[in-house]
Write a structure and sequence with these properties.
Helix content of chain B: 40-55%
CATH superfamily of chain B: Response regulator
Oligomer: heterodimer
Structural class of chain A: mainly alpha
Structural class of chain B: alpha/beta
Distance between the termini of chain B: 7 Å
Helix content of chain A: over 70%
Number of helices of chain B: 5
Radius of gyration of chain A: 32 Å
Number of strands of chain B: 5
Distance between the termini of chain A: 75 Å
Number of helices of chain A: 9
Strand content of chain B: 15-25%
Largest interface: A-B, 28 and 29 residues
Largest sheet of chain A: none
Order of helices and strands of chain A: HHHHHHHHH
Radius of gyration of chain B: 13 Å
CATH topology of chain B: Rossmann fold
Strand order of the largest sheet of chain B: 2-1-3-4-5
Number of strands of chain A: 0
Shape of chain A: elongated
Largest sheet of chain B: 5 strands, parallel
Order of helices and strands of chain B: EHEHEHEHEH
């Protein structure tokens, strides 16, 4: 019976010592690395005992190599360190631009509202000047549209990579683990916070008016058991 | 309950722009005395210090939402009669029912216009 070769044992010890020296949490990469070293170390020994097992071990080793390639293709570090922060900056810029434009438009409207229409000449100058400011402020829509396209591009990029990763690892055949409700999700559920609805999804003002008219307190109490 | 344009109105919203919009609309409708608060907690404090004739509140705010504010107002013997209009983007049926159950006087879905705001204020004061 073939023994485990000294060099393979040495490789395994070296790997374990390296991992221990890092003192970090064990990563998926570490586990895959260990499995790879183990598979190679045991090859000669198991080859002699049972060739079929060797074949299986080789397949496992190949699968591990393939998984490593898939993880590399996911470009998780690029997504985490570059693409998501950049998308966040774009969204911040959109909020700033819309706030600034809204402020300009409202200020112009308030100036027009408070201008004295009895002084026709001055009133006309004020109105024309403020209307120009409103037109100029509306240019924010072009810039924010471009920024939103960039964010959508990032979301599509992540979506493509994650989808491809899930498919290649055949994870789409596995049922998702149940998600634990976060404190924020609990708050949103208890305080009925759904946020704005899309066109046609929420109730309209007419629906609300009808509901408020129709629902007597007794009807509502019945709905709540 | 008669509509009095001199009565103080409290607008509660965490977006300054929305407060500004409602304040301007109320001004156009003839209301002169408009105060504001950034969330339910601040609104409740203000309501305990001053008697408001009408509260117009958003739903989604932190830390205290408009829904929680409404329930606290209705549970407070000194404040429970204050007319309360919810102005919100929360437009699910369960929101409207919960607000009605909690005692809201009217409910406006964002985005809205001056005519809707006027109509709902008139409706509240003609009850």
């Amino acid at each position: 019976m073939a023994a485990i070769q000294k060099e393979n044992v040495a490789r395994l010890i070296e790997f374990l010592e390296e991992s221990r020296a890092r003192k970090d949490d064990v990563t998926l990469n570490d586990v895959m690395g260990l499995a790879e070293v183990m598979a190679r170390s045991m090859k000669d020994y198991i080859d002699a005992v049972q060739p079929a097992v060797t074949q299986e071990l080789m397949e496992i080793s190949d699968e591990i190599c393939r998984m490593k390639q898939e993880i590399v293709q996911l470009r998780a570090t690029d997504i985490k360190e570059n693409r998501i922060p950049e998308a966040g900056r774009e969204l911040d810029a959109i909020v700033e631009a819309t706030e600034s434009a809204t402020h300009t438009i409202m200020e112009a409207a308030e100036t027009i509202m408070s201008a004295d229409p009895d002084d026709a000449d001055t009133y006309q100058v004020v109105v024309q000047h403020k209307i120009m400011e409103i037109f100029e402020a509306c240019a924010f829509q072009d810039i924010t549209g471009q920024r939103i396209s960039k964010v959508v591009g990032t979301l599509n990029y992540i979506d493509e990579r994650v989808n491809s990763f899930v498919k290649r690892l055949r994870m789409d055949e596995v049922e998702d683990a149940p998600l634990e409700e976060t404190a924020e999700e609990k708050r949103r559920r208890e305080l009925i916070l759904h946020g704005p609805q899309h066109e046609g999804e929420g109730v309209s003002q007419e629906d609300v008016d009808a509901m408020l008219e129709v629902f007597a307190q007794d009807d509502i109490d019945k709905l709540f058991g | 309950m008669a509509l009095d344009l001199q009565m103080p109105v409290l607008v509660v919203d965490d977006y300054k722009t929305m407060i500004r919009i409602i304040r301007n609309l109320l001004k156009q409708l003839g209301f002169e005395d408009v105060d504001d608060a950034a969330d339910g907690t601040e609104a409740l404090e203000k309501m305990k210090q001053r008697k408001y004739g009408l509260v117009i509140s958003d739903w989604n705010m932190e830390p205290m939402t408009g829904y929680e504010l409404l329930k606290q107002v209705r549970a407070d013997a000194g404040l429970c009669k204050t007319p309360f209009i919810m102005v919100t983007a929360e437009s699910k049926t369960e929101n409207v029912i919960a607000a009605k159950k909690a005692g809201v006087n009217n409910y406006i879905v964002k985005p809205f216009n001056a005519q809707t705001l006027k109509g709902k204020i008139d409706a509240v004061f003609s009850e």
